[in-house]
């Protein structure tokens, strides 16, 4: 059985730093990497230009982010899969890790200082509630 590592991304450069660290970890462990993007709403917009019509949704945007990161990291040789899942980021990461029986969840350290440390952050909440190991990457 291959070890799975779950990493959360949101399109930011700090999340990409965490994702790269997760890819290195997966390579070192001989594991697979699951790239996950969370979205909270069901917002959908219809864009019409001339006779062309596009439907754009939060889910589509989130899936695009996860797919791009997974594709980028997959080019390094690590086996990657991706998902865009509805919910709060910490809930999505923890439930996906539980569903997959993941060995590690990788998150960035954004807002892990000052008031963010007191009020909470994704990394803080995941670290306190995950049933697997959590690796917090220094991304500032």
UniProtKB/TrEMBL annotation:
Domain of life: Bacteria
InterPro entries given in the database record: Rossmann-like_a/b/a_fold (IPR014729), Universal_stress_UspA (IPR006015), UspA (IPR006016)
Sequence similarity: Belongs to the universal stress protein A family.
Protein name: Universal stress protein
Domain UspA intervals: 1-138
